[in-house]
Amino acid sequence: MANTTLVTVSGGFHNAGEIKIRAKVDPRGGIKLSEGQAKRIGNHMCGIKGCICGMHHGWLVEGVSHGDLSEALADANADRYLNSSRNR
Predict the structure, then answer these.
(1) What are phi and psi of 9, to 5 degrees?
(2) pTM
(3) Which residues 6+ apart lie within 8 Å of 20 measured at CB?
(4) 26 FRET partner, CA 20 to 30 A, in 1, 35, 68, 86?
């Protein structure tokens, strides 16, 4: 059985509503997100093409630390999804 945790993210520049993602817990610490989960979070928090809102600044994160979420997004190559001027 995979060890998971529920991560809730909201707020940010656009004051987005809550999105909940079930993330795998990394046995070395932190969490692991798939590219699809990272893209889902990015699209939910800022789906505006060309916006330069700064993405994960000001996000309210529950279930894990903001640092763990930031690290998991980086590990999932989320920079492709979190720069909202691209890939939309």
Answers:
(1) -130, 140
(2) 0.81
(3) 6, 7, 8
(4) 86
Residue 79 to residue 38: CA distance in whole angstroms: 9
**What single string gives the DSSP state of each residue in the chain?**
---EEEEEEEETTTTEEEEEEEEEEPTTSSEE--HHHHHHHHHHH---TT--S-TTTTEEEESS-HHHHHHHHHHTTTHHHHSTTS--
Q: What is the chain's pLDDT, residue by residue, as a tens digit (88 residues)?
A: 469 999 999 999 889 999 999 999 999 999 999 999 998 998 898 888 778 786 677 899 999 999 999 899 888 876 665 554 444 4
d(CA 71, CA 61): 13
Side chain identity at residue 16, one-letter code: A
